[in-house]
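Class prep. Protein, please:
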Amino acid sequence: MRNGLIGLVSAVALASMATHGCSSSGGGAGNGGAPASGGASSGGAPASGGAGSGGKPGSGGAASGVAPASGGAGGTTQPASCPNGTSCGGDVVATWTVTSSCLTLSGDMDGQLLYLGCTKIPATGSLKVTGTWTANADGTYSDNTITTGSMTFMLAPSCLVVSSSPVECSKMSGTFTAAGWATATCSTDASGQCSCSATANQTGGIGVIFANASNKGDYTTTGGALNTDGEMDYSYCVSGNKLTLTPQSKVLPLAGTIVLQGGTPPGSGGAGGGAPGSGGKAGAGGATTGAGGATTGSGGTTTGAGGATGSGGKGGGAGTTTGVGGTAGAGGTTPVGGATGKGPCDIYAAASNKCVVAHSTVRALFAGYTGKLYQVKRASDSKRQDIGTTADGFADSAAQDTFCTGTTCVITFLYDQSGNGNDVEAETADSTVKGNAGQSASNATQEKFTVGGHNVYSLYMKTAQAYWKDGSKSNVPTGNNPQSVYMVTSGKHFGSGCCFNYGNGPLSRTVSGCGTMDGVNFSSNAQWEKGAGAGPWVMADFECGLKAGGNPNANDPSLTSAYVTALEKNNGTSEWSLRGGDATTGTLGSFYKGKLPFTQAKEGAVILGSGGDCCYSNTTASQGTFYEGAIVAGYPTDATDDAVQANIVAAKYGQ
């Protein structure tokens, strides 16, 4: 199904930023307020000093410099429109405090970029930004801003279509909460139109309401353009100690800027700190001490934040980033990824069910597999490296760490361990499988964790990220042949957008009919069917709407553990089943078994992170984490499923 409910979700609230003086942030540097007692903290932003214009001198001066002081309001009326700023570039390395914001929405949202059945959606609203934003010299940033506001809009009847399937007005709210809005409500008014409203209350993602908003990451500047995490674009201008940001939105009718006041560059301010620790970069607020000792800022009374343990530490973003290296070293000698000498695909094979696709960033899924697991590409020179396995079957994360040191990396390929060559590739404009210009590859280092005592990485997928391969000629089931799909995913990172799937999809990457897909879905999307509670749930995607086995299906529970096993299988002609459970303990639950809703007409493409009609000409609104999974030819018994689950538990995810 169409994963582009939001499409370019990065822009669905690229909610523009404000010119100086339009609306007080309620905590910017005051006009005439005295600095807080004790001076700035070593390595943090300078103390906020005075309250807002007209506030009492010195009220709320924060020693840590993390957030602006709350003081007298300098005016809160939002103008009817807000002008955009000029672009002049400049050095952004400093901690910046928002002093004003002016952001208005007035005009038509682009319904096509939201992947609805209409082209224009009238919208009005405004946003406001408060807090601080820090750019570090090493190309990283920390974002301690909060963006709030609201938007109202009308959805004409032609808009109430998602993935070529009708959706009730009252269920359209999921389109916008998937885009990062805190709440959204849609209802049919007296005129028969779908009237909607949305509110924002977001930490991080300065002035931009979107699902991938982050409070830390990487940034680049070129001329007068600034980009964060490869997703958000702004024009900017530094003039003296003032930074003006203007967002570049492709979806919303936005106008305006955010104005920030500059302070001490990160890493400066604390004098006379200890000697640098081994391998550690200078922490914010003084040099980093090898033993994590505190550094006192010159003239200040607050202990500097720069004394985090230094070994390999990433450059001093406000002195809070702890160096890499303290995590548990690779350990354990149990073969085949912490299992008992067999992998999941060996278990399937013993039951006469063959893995025709097998992917993982974590471990080998066959006992005899010693090949490559995935490929990373680094930003500094665009070189690529394949990441293989260690002697005991886990991903060689040390090789990735070495290759990606000092730069950022993305995952471009997941290699098929089955021998069928069903390697899935990121659907980006520069890939061999191509993809929409709004698509990107997943950050290779977004989530590092342990499995069986080994450090490994996940495929941490945000919106507008998906992987694909034409497997129709390489043994992926087609037509009404039976198929089973499992994946290990996360109950902590998921979304309500359509559609985080792993499985079998259409070759054209368009909606070609009900039953042309066969994939397991894990999400909190409730636009068609849902399980018990608020989600996320294990569901199936056959095209023409997600299936949970009921609406709601009280037997399909919300699975919120850190690691989740999700499984869907069908015999191709009459019966299908949903199963799932905690990937670290216990057995699989049986959530549904019943009649197939559509005649199966599988086409044999391999999809990961999207629905069937994504992402060549559109983008995906879904998000989730992929650790391992397989597509199996055949209809395994429940006993076989249970044996695979036992193998996953034995791998010791998170341990």
Observations:
- Residues 340-368+458-651 form a domain with the Jelly Rolls fold (CATH 2.60.120.200).
- The helical segments are 173-177, 335-338, 344-350, 397-404, 638-651.
- The radius of gyration is 26 Å.
- DSSP finds five helices and 33 strands in the chain.
